[in-house]
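Re: the request from the purification team.
They wanted to know what the chain is likely to look like in 3D before they choose a buffer screen. I agreed to run a prediction and write the result into the notebook, where they can find it.
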Amino acid sequence: MSAPPIRKPAGDVDYGVWGISYSKYRRPEQSIARLIDAKLGSARTVLNVGAGTGSYEPVQTRTVTAVEPDATMRGQRPQTFPQAIDAVAEELPFADGEFDAAMAIFTIHQWKNLEKGLAEVRRVTKGPVVMLTQDPDHMGEYWLADYAPELIARETKRMPPLSRISAGLGAGPVQVIRVRLPRDCTDGFMEAYWTRPEMWFDEGARRACSAWSFIDQAGQQDILEKLKADLDSGEWDRKHGHLREQESYESSLVLVVAGKNGAGK
């Protein structure tokens, strides 16, 4: 009997290697969760596309169907959450208008065909579509750009322009909400540690942020050595220490919200 074919990663990152610590470091930030939940409106049935480990799924108040193509991510979902379906955004195995709403959290930059994926999400959703992503026009403002310009440049190229997302969601208006991050943000994506630069010395934190996967070990070591030197000398605080005094930070993170046929709510 022949062995089953090895499935390639659905996106540009192998989460079988880089996703093993997501459930520990990528815990939902409650301020973001409340915003997402509010924009889902009165929906009772919600599709979560590119669901990962299940962050931000409103399983306590709504019926959630999760789609996630990566086995490592599916395996880290809480046992109390619905089992995720092995599928990709571009080929959703659901009927037209099957769900009241849909959500897609930190995933659209992984889709191989953005327009096809957005069209599929619109096809199966009657009501609002809520997407959390990053605005590439603002990603270079994060302090890490001083130490890892290659990382920031690579990550910026991965993120689709907001105009492209809006166009793919339909002809109507699409609402874009800039998200402010608390100083103790619990969801460890790239800008979560805006006031905690020391977190990047934790390998688990880096492995829970796919941007670091594009930098080899030698490159990562160079970045960390430069950062440590500036932290030890006080240079980081001279440049960015004002961030430590802030309670929140307006990052490149945005919530994109479209209603039926792209009519923003």
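For the purification team: The longest strand covers residues 248-258.
Please add any questions underneath this entry.
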